[in-house]
Amino acid sequence: MSEFVRGRLVPLLVLLVVFALVPYGLAKFGKGYFFQVAQLVLIYALLAVSLHLVTGAAGLLHLGHAAFYGVGAYVAALLGTEMKLGFLWGLPAAGLAAAALAFVVALPTMRLVSIYFAVATLAIGQMIHTVLLNWVAVTKGPNGVMLFSGITLFGTPVKSPIAIYFLVAGLVALSIWVLHRLSHSYYGNALRSLREDDQCADAMGVDTVRLKIEVFTVSAFFAGIAGALWAYTTGYVSPGDFGFNTSILVLAMIVVGGLGSLPGAIIGAALLILLPEVLRGVGDLRNVMVGIVMFVSILFLPRGLLGEVSALSLVRRGFGLKWGAAPSDREVGWR
Amino acid sequence: MSLLEIENVTRRFGGLVAVDGVTTRVEAGELVGLIGPNGAGKTTLFNLISGFTPLSAGAVRFKGEPIQGLKPHRIAARGMSRTFQNLRVFPNMSVFDNVSVGAVGAMGQSAFAAVFGRRARADAISARTWEALERVGLGGVAEDLAANLSYGKRKYLEIARALAMKPELLILDEPAAGLNDSETADLARFIRSLNGEGLSIMLVEHDMNLVMGICSRVVVLASGRKIADAEPAAVRADPAVLEAYLGVDE
Ligand SMILES: Nc1ncnc2c1ncn2[C@@H]1O[C@H](COP(=O)(O)OP(=O)(O)OP(=O)(O)O)[C@@H](O)[C@H]1O
Ligand SMILES: [Mg+2]
């Protein structure tokens, strides 16, 4: 089997599972609940991959990612209820609103380094969360917002769970493809150089501050998209879903999966969403067990289930590049 | 017009004057050595030229245009690249990816181009990365993590990364530090050959023999002041240099 085929196999298998096996199983055996779980995995995969770009690749410890997820969810929900704007407006608006907010807060924050940056993002997350919770006139405060209208495409309501599932899966796949191109390219190499030594990257002609602002904004855009998908699929948003706990959960996903590894972020998201569902039977102990699994996995696989180095070489083969196969072959790099 | 003109450049750190009114230049195609005892201000002068440290006074012109006050990446984009005294490679990136940062830094790849771009730009960056890698002889370890290279090879990696920017002026801060005699001799030959291809180089070095052997002109700093600026033979005979620098060394 050629390297090319082998490298393409993994993403093809994943797509097969997401677009054929899961919907088939859901249609056959699933009830509404399983659809919710499947969509949750997809939404968190997008959240994790978007955080991967900032924290895994560019190395900026971001503790407020859930806030941009929340902004997206609320923008979609409020546009739907207050202004009767449907999915085709709400989805991009959610992404753009989250991105715009991220851009504004990034301008002063990006000059901060390491722990100071982390604390700043923590504060931003808490601030946005507090606004969602207390700006009752707009966000309805702790009661949250009900979005009854659901998804409407070109005037036709999308009602069947399987159609909604395909829509969410398609949008998540498209978003992850964009993030994959950003991460697995020379642009991605520049991002990783920020993480390694940003002063040195500066000396190489990389505009470090601009790149950090850019990547923070792009990441928030996709968090906003994930938020909108959450709002449309659950029909209800409330501040509790977008707090610090959620930011930390997404962070745990990318760490367990492999910090710096995009496929790892997807694996981590699937694991940390599915595990508590699978463990539902054990009742209250399940959160303890999820904790134990996380702890043990970090202890024994500190580089994650699929670490950055293996992930990059895997993806390179998917590009048809011979990375890891023939040393000093010119067919390495990115395309 | 010289390639690099340094005019009355001064840098103070509190009460300490690390670089004190230094004036010198690098002509196109020249290989200039910069020597001086520990703490003479050599690294500080490099930081001033490359934009890492703001000037307290004076002016720096590169290709005739003032560059003081510009960010390091802007200066780099104009065709000046540097290495660091305390070896700074990107440890968790492969050798290839390390060098590619120099290429992408100089050539640029926007987010949009990364997502939707055609292959031409990416292939051009790959080609330039390979060229630099093979120039320093690291083509065979392109896929290794930089952290796993030997110290000597990491030194060449840092130079390759700078070369991938296709600079007009390369400034090297103590490239031979920590190398043994034969490695130093190899490095000297390598630097000479780079210069032979027309690249202008400014070289800070402790190793007197290296500098005297390959440089066409040597600038000597002591306590932030320039005390000599001449051909190696003249510098070697200069009593001020002997007192300030060689006297300490021998
Ligand atoms: N950021 C800084 N803040 C305060 N003092 C500094 C700073 N950078 C350098 N100095 C001081 O300036 C002087 C010149 O230092 P510099 O590193 O330029 O010397 P050098 O010639 O490169 O020495 P070496 O041969 O040891 O590398 C030293 O006394 C140093 O302590
Ligand atoms: Mg120095």
From TrEMBL, chain A:
One of its GO terms (cellular component) is plasma membrane. It is a multi-pass membrane protein. It comes from the Bacteria. Its main location: membrane. The chain crosses the membrane at residues 9-27, 33-53, 60-80, 86-107, 114-137, 162-179, 213-233, 248-275, 287-306. The keyword Transmembrane helix applies. One of its GO terms (molecular function) is branched-chain amino acid transmembrane transporter activity. It is found in: Cell membrane. Keywords: Cell membrane, Membrane, Transmembrane, Transmembrane helix. It holds the Pfam family BPD_transp_2. CDD domains: TM_PBP1_LivM_like (cd06581). InterPro entries: ABC_transp_permease (IPR001851), LivM-like (IPR043428). PANTHER family: HIGH-AFFINITY BRANCHED-CHAIN AMINO ACID TRANSPORT PROTEIN BRAE, HIGH-AFFINITY BRANCHED-CHAIN AMINO ACID TRANSPORT SYSTEM PERMEASE. This is Branched-chain amino acid ABC transporter permease. The lineage of its organism: Bacteria, Pseudomonadati, Pseudomonadota, Alphaproteobacteria, Hyphomicrobiales.
TrEMBL record, chain B:
InterPro entries: AAA+_ATPase, ABC_AA/LPS_Transport, ABC_transporter-like_ATP-bd, BCA_ABC_TP_C, P-loop_NTPase. Keywords: ATP-binding, Nucleotide-binding, Transport. It holds the Pfam family ABC_tran. The keyword S-adenosyl-L-methionine does not apply. SUPFAM superfamilies: P-loop containing nucleoside triphosphate hydrolases. One of its GO terms (cellular component) is plasma membrane. PANTHER family: CONSERVED COMPONENT OF ABC TRANSPORTER FOR NATURAL AMINO ACIDS, CONSERVED COMPONENT OF ABC TRANSPORTER FOR NATURAL AMINO ACIDS-RELATED. This is ABC transporter.
